[in-house]
Amino acid sequence: MLVSHSKYKLIIVILFVSASLIKIALNDFSENPKTIDLRFEEVMSMDLVVYNDKIHLLAAGKIKQQDSLITVKHSSSENLGVQWSNEVELKNAISPISSFGNDIQLATFENNLLAIWQIKGELPGMGPLISYLSKDNGKTWTKQSNPAADDLGDQSHVDIIADKSGNFHAVWLADPEENGYQSLRYSRFKDEQWQASERLDDSTCSCCWNTIALSATGDLSILYRDMKPRDMVLISSQDQGLTWSNKSIVGDFKWQFDGCPHLGGGLAESNKGDIYSTVWTGLENHSGLYTLKSSDNGKSWTEPVLLSQRASHSGIAVNSKQVVAVWDQRDDDGNAVYFVKSTDDGKTWSNPIRISSGKTNATFPHIVAQEQGFLVVWTEKSSGKPAQLISKPLH
Questions:
Q1: Residues forming beta bridges with residue 226, ordered by sequence position
Q2: Do 175 and 150 form a contact (C-beta atoms < 8 A)?
Q3: Buried (b) or exposed (e) across 218-233, using 16+ Cβ within 10 A?
Q4: Fewer Cβ atoms within 10 A, N terminus or C terminus of the chain?
Q5: Helix (H, G, I), strand (E, B) or coil at 124
Q6: Would you give the distance in Å from CA 210 to the centre of its chain?
Q7: Closest Cα partner for 220 from 240, 250, 200?
Q8: How many CA atoms, within 13 angstroms, populate the side-chain half-sphere of residue 365?
Q9: For the chain, how far is it from start to end, CA to CA, in angstroms?
Q10: 29 in helix, strand or coil?
């Protein structure tokens, strides 16, 4: 039987497409999740950032279960988490009281790394911020000052990022005036010192984490939970934090709630200028985790797309090929980590895919993007065992 040349072409195309799809599937699922061993008996907080395709991990935990103080360590990977450098302990660093949801934070620019976290104050579970600087890619660290004006009260839920000029930008919650509610505070680390802090919003939700992101053009965006209503909002700066825009609502649910959900959101900005976000709402009959997109610097947003009604902690990242959102949720066999991806700039999303093991408590996923793919890191706790860091690359 003779087959025409055009049919040969069609067969080759079909085989090529099939092989590509198989390759994508294998890339997503062939690499099993694995433990990141930083020689902690129990991990208690972490942050994950990327600079020039080098991933930096900052983690806090107990080296031995009976330890009263928390140790902070740094490690890095240049191959999407396949291998990690030997961990470096931040010697003589003040022990953080940070925990998951109020994590230690890290930002990088070239060889400069700036870490920041909350330490113990006068009242239990409350205290000021402290920062540490490394100028040699994490080998050695020196103590820096507090970005806040003083060490009074509760300074928590900090996030930090570096801009393209090498300045670092921090945002956190505090109530130095003792008004009875937290306000959103901001400071810039320039020329190796913190500049005077300022108040960006008088009243915010008191215990949801804040997220700060940087666009390709250098614009800063901050995502945080408002007071009334308890929806997520975004403010931005186009002049390296000197001035800030009015806040825009990210998912206009009009959720009226007097308590605190302890849930912030995810934020990522693409090279095209699009902003992607994950937000959670507890609005009756609409509760769950949603994703949205803005193409005008946060002034307007697409209609929210529901990712999961059972989701809680989330993150989102973007490269030139796709957008990936991650979260944890309660399943029948324990807490699990899921992801979805979009290859058309957030217009459509894949079905949710579980990537954590069964019968474990998998929580607080972090995600970063490299051009070659994404790395997801979360904590996983088996029955009767302390929490450990687990990683999974996605391509």
A1: 204
A2: no
A3: ebbbbbbbbbebbbbb
A4: N
A5: coil
A6: 9
A7: 240
A8: 34
A9: 41
A10: helix
Spell out the domains of the chain, with CATH numbers in brackets.
35-203 (2.120.10.10)
Please enumerate in sequence order all residues whose Cβ is within 8 A of that of 314, keeping only pairs 6 or more positions apart, or say none.
265, 266, 278, 280, 289, 307, 325, 326, 327, 328, 365
Q: DSSP class of residue 215? A: -
Angle at 240 between CA 130 and CA 113, to 5 degrees: 40
The amino acid at residue 374 is F
* Confidence (pTM): 0.91
For 25, 26, 27, 34, 254, the CA distances from 31, given in Å and listed in that order, are: 11, 8, 7, 9, 42
| Integer Cα distance of 134 and 113 in angstroms | 5
Note down pLDDT in tens along the chain; length 395 residues: 333 444 434 333 333 333 443 333 334 445 789 999 999 999 999 999 999 989 999 999 999 989 999 999 999 999 999 999 999 999 999 999 989 999 999 999 999 999 999 999 988 889 999 999 999 999 999 999 999 988 988 999 999 999 999 999 999 999 877 667 799 999 999 999 999 999 999 999 999 999 999 999 999 999 999 999 999 999 999 999 999 999 999 999 999 999 889 999 999 999 999 999 999 999 999 999 999 999 999 999 999 999 999 999 999 999 999 999 999 999 999 899 999 999 999 999 999 999 998 889 999 999 999 999 999 999 999 888 899 999 999 99
Distance from C-alpha of 156 to C-alpha of 258, rounded to nearest angstrom: 20
Q: Which two tokens stand for residue 381?
A: 């706790």
Q: Which residues are CB-neighbours of 107 under 8 A, at least 6 positions away? A: 49, 113, 114, 160, 161, 162, 168
Q: Which two tokens stand for residue 37?
A: 């061993």
Please name the amino acid found at residue 152: L
The answer to whether residues 220 and 214 touch, using CB atoms and an 8 Å cutoff, is yes
Distances (CA, A) of 260 to 4, 119, 280, 296: 67, 22, 12, 30
DSSP 50-79: EETTEEEEEEEEESSTT-SSPEEEEEEESS
CA distance 142 to 93: 9
Give phi and psi for 106, each to the nearest 5: -145, 145
